[in-house]
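dumping the sequnces here before i forget
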Amino acid sequence: MGNTFGHLFRITTFGESHGGGVGVVIDGCPPQLEISAAEIQVELDRRRPGQSKITTPRKESDTCEIISGVFQGKTLGTAIAILVRNKDARSQDYDEMAFKYRPSHADATYDAKYGIRNWQGGGRSSARETIGRVAAGAIAKKILKQVAGIEIVAYVKRIKNKEAVVDNKIVTLEQVESNIVRCPNDECAVKMIDEIDRARRDKDSLGGVVECVARNVPPGLGEPVFDKLEADLAKSVMSLPATKGFEIGSGFAGTTMTGSEHNDEFYIDENSQTRVVRTVTNRSGGIQGGISNGENIVMRAAFKPTATIGKQQRTVTKTGEETTLAAKGRHDPCVLPRAVPMVEAMVALVLCDHLLRHHAQCKLM
Amino acid sequence: MGNTFGHLFRITTFGESHGGGVGVVIDGCPPQLEISAAEIQVELDRRRPGQSKITTPRKESDTCEIISGVFQGKTLGTAIAILVRNKDARSQDYDEMAFKYRPSHADATYDAKYGIRNWQGGGRSSARETIGRVAAGAIAKKILKQVAGIEIVAYVKRIKNKEAVVDNKIVTLEQVESNIVRCPNDECAVKMIDEIDRARRDKDSLGGVVECVARNVPPGLGEPVFDKLEADLAKSVMSLPATKGFEIGSGFAGTTMTGSEHNDEFYIDENSQTRVVRTVTNRSGGIQGGISNGENIVMRAAFKPTATIGKQQRTVTKTGEETTLAAKGRHDPCVLPRAVPMVEAMVALVLCDHLLRHHAQCKLM
Amino acid sequence: MGNTFGHLFRITTFGESHGGGVGVVIDGCPPQLEISAAEIQVELDRRRPGQSKITTPRKESDTCEIISGVFQGKTLGTAIAILVRNKDARSQDYDEMAFKYRPSHADATYDAKYGIRNWQGGGRSSARETIGRVAAGAIAKKILKQVAGIEIVAYVKRIKNKEAVVDNKIVTLEQVESNIVRCPNDECAVKMIDEIDRARRDKDSLGGVVECVARNVPPGLGEPVFDKLEADLAKSVMSLPATKGFEIGSGFAGTTMTGSEHNDEFYIDENSQTRVVRTVTNRSGGIQGGISNGENIVMRAAFKPTATIGKQQRTVTKTGEETTLAAKGRHDPCVLPRAVPMVEAMVALVLCDHLLRHHAQCKLM
Amino acid sequence: MGNTFGHLFRITTFGESHGGGVGVVIDGCPPQLEISAAEIQVELDRRRPGQSKITTPRKESDTCEIISGVFQGKTLGTAIAILVRNKDARSQDYDEMAFKYRPSHADATYDAKYGIRNWQGGGRSSARETIGRVAAGAIAKKILKQVAGIEIVAYVKRIKNKEAVVDNKIVTLEQVESNIVRCPNDECAVKMIDEIDRARRDKDSLGGVVECVARNVPPGLGEPVFDKLEADLAKSVMSLPATKGFEIGSGFAGTTMTGSEHNDEFYIDENSQTRVVRTVTNRSGGIQGGISNGENIVMRAAFKPTATIGKQQRTVTKTGEETTLAAKGRHDPCVLPRAVPMVEAMVALVLCDHLLRHHAQCKLM
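..and the predicted 3d for all of it:
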């Protein structure tokens, strides 16, 4: 269970790090959307390993094939299946991990749950699983753009203690993609890259914060009570590997303010073509009562330092003996640069699903 | 949509702040569980208004009636419906809110989404909606206790800047309930109560952090990929009114550590009756790879300061005129003391659902 | 589990025959629909016991209360809860059934599944459970009528061997309601009533066939692959108590034809305002490939003779002793007259759900 | 939407008749089940085209590849993806169908719904879509066998008017597979084959009835109210292409009996190792009140004559012109022989899902 996400725009992913491949089935996609493997590949290329010196050197082109659901360049409205074959699978790197559990990784818990585990490269718990999400997210993004002009931009906000000042109102994809750490503040990016490179050399790893903004989201998306927009966003982001926290708008910092300081006062935007209700500030992060209010949706996700490191650590074996492990294999010293397209994909999937849900219930009559 | 939560242990809530009442239908509850309205009432009493000088003075006994699903004191295995009638509904307090939107509240977004809104007391967006969750959570807690000895304790960790030191390994419900702010650190509790009381007198409000621990959770709960235990917990807590953030284990703070500092090393606990794999530290918060590892599950939720305040604020009317609003009505100056049983309920619902899911898939053959 | 039905227009029912009451929570209803308890009551009155000499004499007004989700006469878009209290509960009639299983009833299987059972009046397996369905169906019907002019008419087609000729193209609700057996063929209705009355006097029971037509269903409703319209209709009808079979269009009889005899040839209807694709015949029953084609949707459901009868039968006790049972209590000698509004309700729920689903996916872009 | 089936043992299928391939993702499969591509292939071979003179001559080996979810011959508990590539795709046979609608086929309705359609070989509406179901069904069957000794046998009961006498208590897979029409009554099978062969030569087609029995189903499977076992079985079977009707137990014929004739009286089976409640007759078809009672589950499905025939028929074009069509391409003159493994697969999927659901709720405490 748990391999399906979304209510109307719904994806099901499959695949392990080493094996036949990974992929996704997308159900509920509107028909007649123009889509090509090349467009999806653009997003997969942002996610793939071996992009730069601060990502894992595993060589994977991650070339996607659209198996079904697209005909003569357009979606059919039926299930879209996308497959990416695994290529550079050096399972011998993982021999030791067949019986030694990596600290803070999923090895031990998968064994505890299932009594069996594909120990090659993390199996199903590998971040390679996110390929299907990113592929589906590429389609979701295109729908959001076409239907409502929505754009989603994520970026690295902080690596360890290096935090970048970024204006989420105007940050662009191009700025994010202008450096290998995906921080749209070049000065800070240099420092972040240095930090990550040092951790890599130290056989250690780093964490940080990814921030994401969704602009032009129309008011009305999100479903009270349980499927509040922030709740579904939280789930979507917290389902990504290595996440430890989620914030919307003012987040934890907002809890130190009083209500009169924190509340977003309303005003009428006379500059808009139609007189529109806006808020002076945006501590709500674009969502009030679980429903989008038309302001930018702003959220942050905490990613822990990569669990798999080359440094020797104390651990146990599958059969219950204490031992040590210094992980071999090719791992990211910091997941954040590659997590950026993953966060965007998850946010796109949630917004697209809620766009359809809102359309179904509130635009019918 | 969005009024249902859970996959196997599944609840559907209904009701508005003012109207016929609020309640819940619980589907998937195991049969033959002994349960009484009185047991459920204990949890509802922790949530109800008018408990103390730092909560809203609205007078509601919140007496629950079990409509169906229980026979001769035991669950039937079929749908359990629980109803709480609304009593002290002074809708005249809300007349002004029929046309003026409260800043940072759901008034404007409900109107944007539905084009209609029950403006009496917040309607469906009122925290009164959580009565159904707390009632269902009482049953979930009992199942968790009986099946696996799981206990869930939440408490106020911080109000504004007043943060309490609490040992989540040993904190008890009795300690939490020993004061009106539900902070199991009496010294800090006094300061918190003072802060809230001052905010109340100032017609302002405060926010803070609730921490929650689940102990004795067996390894194996949680479903990769999308229904990771932390993802479902995040969604459950972020679906509560006024939440702005969620953390599991080390949370945002953990992102400033290196992997070698952050990882939870494994050891074998020889003191246990059976030799058990444990971790030296618990920065993972009891979950690795989306699956419980047997350590305590520790999480925190950020609650913003209450949006409805007596202080005058700038806002707009339903018809698009700028105006001001100083809210009347009876509101909590700080939601956290009453949010404690809500958080416990949501955590219990998630764990109970995953206990059933795990049992179904992994304990069948 | 199993108390929820529908994907977007979704209902959850609760309640047992004897106990606090029965009801339904409706999620996903479009906002701003005018609806009143009186309108819902009209359908409940068609379903309630004690209508005529050929239904059970149990006296229940089945008066419904709208607990939530409707404000000032209009739907809010949030969960609608409807409650009907149980009144005439003579549980003493069921004392014998507390330990003796009624043949072909759910008594034994509920005990086998749950190890517990509310034996008063059938508990959750009572047809009284359908009150929630019929109430929700009343709302679904109104949406279908307003959005697309869809009308749904069911009627008794056959009682035992008495089969009525009915033209489903033109049959009206008024004709159906013109007699107590709900057969819109007065001549045949008289014979059916006689048959049922004789069975009643014999302490026996009868079964038969309900036919249902949905007119003005727009083309395009239904989702390949698993949620084909006929599949969801089959499930909906087969979830009603006492059903043993379901047919769409030509049904079982159509299997004796050849393809060239059975196929519905297409033609262009020049008489329509817009030139419309129609079929000469309608053996498909308005659905091809799981999707509505614009022709009338015609289906039939087989209802077995009521299981609970006054005649003495061989059975066993809960503790495994062979015995006999001549059921007391007040039971319908034939469920079909009261099943008519149930079938209509289920068909309405399926069509309304698919109308929303189709609108979401195919009317967005 | 609609490409996913099941609640806990859940499958999602994808693929069109002509294109990259067809397949399935299976979620919720218990871990550590031994399974091989070869075992799955056995069932696919029963379904594949070109088996005999009475099936379509399309040449497809339908060789399956397990992409994920199985490691070292055992299920991992995570998503199992199975892919079958399309091979013998002569799309030129379908050129005419690009613009002419086949009567009683899905061509026109897919266009009406989506405004686009893969017209090669029926696209998503092709029976080729059922490959994923049959592959998943092979795994479900194995689980049912191992956990509860359940065996499922389907067979052709009737072709047009040729109906076979078959004893469902003892019929075996070997008997079913002993002839090309899959009727376990050799004498009748010969007549059926003659009928089909004649229809094939006449460029016409035939329909009929498939019967299916599930033996050794434990009491307690099925969920009141909406997910009654017969309701889910009805949906599963009615989601197969070309089905027009479904019956459980006595079906439509049972409606001509009185209650005292129809009811299945209970007795205690003293011959069983434990004294077991049994029924003298089995008109209930193994299900009472939506829950299995331990007797054989017996059901029948009506399959219409194949819609695609070589005989000339009246139809219309995509652009609304009346025309005629004599279908080219390679089609089954009768779908029933190949429908037998499809019906078994759907029944297995439903029973497996309900086995897990029952285990989750009723075997936890």
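Chain D touches chain B at residues 7-8, 28-33, 77-79, 143, 146-147, 224-225, 355-357, 359-365 (CB under 8 Å).
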